[in-house]
Amino acid sequence: MYKLLNLVFGWDYIQWKNTAASGIARVRVDYNGNVYYWQYKPTNAAGLITDHKPFLWLTCPPAKYLST
Q1: Measured at the alpha carbon of residue 61, what is the angle toward residues 59 and 62, in degrees to the nearest 5?
Q2: N or C: which end of the chain has fewer CB within 10 A?
Q3: What residue segments make up the domains of the chain, in order of their start?
Q4: Range list of H helices, the chain
């Protein structure tokens, strides 16, 4: 599904995982240039992306958003 959304809308996706859960989320950029994703959308818990290593980048290379 995320590949179709990437093809149609150009949205980029990552796969995230922590000790409690895992999932696929859309990569977003706010007005200040911070790169984040919605980790738990019902509770409005966003995760900030500062390093590319903890994530599996599904639809783009991490260099598109991070300069590391």
Answers
A1: 115
A2: N
A3: 1-41
A4: 2-9
